[in-house]
Design the sequence.
């Protein structure tokens, strides 16, 4: 008897709820559905202290509020401008990469990121290449000559599953060959990148290409499961690199990262490049990383040295369980003793002066 009463009460509750939904009217139903959908999306995003703002390169608008999926903004810069520094706000970049069409946010100027504590998440499959939520630039005018997409000087920001793609040569007027060109330039401390990709495609003649530039005060930047470079782009016989350390900083961490590059000729390309004697004030740590350069029709090592540039006065590079493919040596300059590794080719003094393979 109790079971029959319980079933009857449950039936009445469902019927009542259905009637209430029907009584909402055609104008209210879409708003309720939208709120439910937004709640579903938000529940899959990281917890933050502030507000979420949404970016959609297909359906977004420069004049939208960006606070819900029905009114997204168009670019990362527009969402960034709406965030409050230190409030713990977040930005969700909606990816719409489908067969034959890729919707990436196209910036018109470099993003000067000075704010603190913002979380940026790409809503996309965590693929190596264009499947990620991609940040690039428009392909006309001066925007096609950006020396970087973002200059990050703020602190305590997190970027998850974002593709930073800088290709400053599409309109035939590439940036100066004397400029340091990168996808992202970092000058703020304690920022983190998780599952991101960085690549820069300047003109082949540019000898200063890198994917990430670490400058003064980029202390304790952390890269986890990130991808640098791309084997489809030919770096040529230039002193380019994946990572370029241009200013005094300490302690950068790389874990589970993959570095890829094609080099069709020459031996000058390097993995890690320093610009001067005072740029490394601490220890940079690479753990479980793969560094690979390749050339068609050969299996031989083609690049002379993973480390290139000026020997720092202080500091060290630790490489734990890493693999170098395509480099003759980790550090081609004997006596530098800069790289410390648990690989079997370490020098007796602790520094690296022979090949790591």
Sequence:
């Amino acid at each position: 008897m109790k079971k029959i009463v319980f079933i009857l009460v449950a039936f009445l509750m469902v019927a009542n709820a259905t009637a209430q939904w029907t009584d909402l009217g055609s104008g209210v139903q879409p708003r309720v559905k939208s709120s439910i959908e937004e709640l579903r999306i938000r529940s899959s995003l990281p917890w933050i202290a502030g507000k979420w703002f949404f970016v959609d390169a297909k359906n977004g608008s420069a004049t939208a509020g960006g606070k819900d999926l029905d009114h997204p903004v168009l670019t990362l810069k527009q969402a960034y401008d709406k965030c409050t520094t230190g409030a713990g706000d977040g930005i969700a970049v909606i990816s719409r990469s489908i067969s034959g069409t890729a919707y990436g946010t196209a910036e018109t100027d470099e993003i000067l990121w000075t704010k603190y504590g913002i979380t940026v998440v790409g809503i996309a499959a965590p693929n190596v290449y264009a499947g990620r939520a991609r940040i690039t630039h428009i392909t006309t005018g001066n925007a096609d000559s950006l020396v970087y997409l973002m200059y990050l000087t703020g602190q305590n920001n997190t970027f998850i599953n974002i593709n930073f793609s800088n290709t400053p040569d599409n309109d035939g007027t590439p940036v100066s060959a004397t400029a340091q060109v990168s996808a992202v330039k970092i000058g703020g401390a304690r920022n983190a990148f998780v599952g991101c990709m960085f690549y820069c495609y300047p003109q082949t003649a540019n000898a200063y290409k890198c994917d990430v530039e670490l400058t003064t005060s980029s202390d304790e930047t952390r890269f986890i499961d990130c991808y640098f470079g791309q084997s489809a782009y030919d770096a040529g016989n230039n002193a380019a690199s994946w990572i370029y350390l241009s200013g005094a900083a300490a302690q950068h961490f790389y874990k589970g990262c993959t570095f890829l590059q094609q080099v069709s000729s020459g031996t000058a390309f390097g993995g890690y490049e320093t610009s001067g004697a005072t740029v490394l004030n601490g220890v940079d740590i690479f753990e479980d990383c793969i560094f690979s350069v390749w050339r068609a029709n050969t299996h031989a090592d083609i690049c002379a040295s993973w480390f290139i540039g000026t020997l720092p006065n202080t500091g060290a590079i630790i490489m734990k369980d890493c693999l170098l493919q395509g480099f003759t040596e980790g550090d081609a300059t004997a006596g530098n003793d800069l790289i410390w590794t648990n690989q079997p080719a370490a020098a007796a003094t602790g520094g690296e002066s022979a090949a790591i393979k």
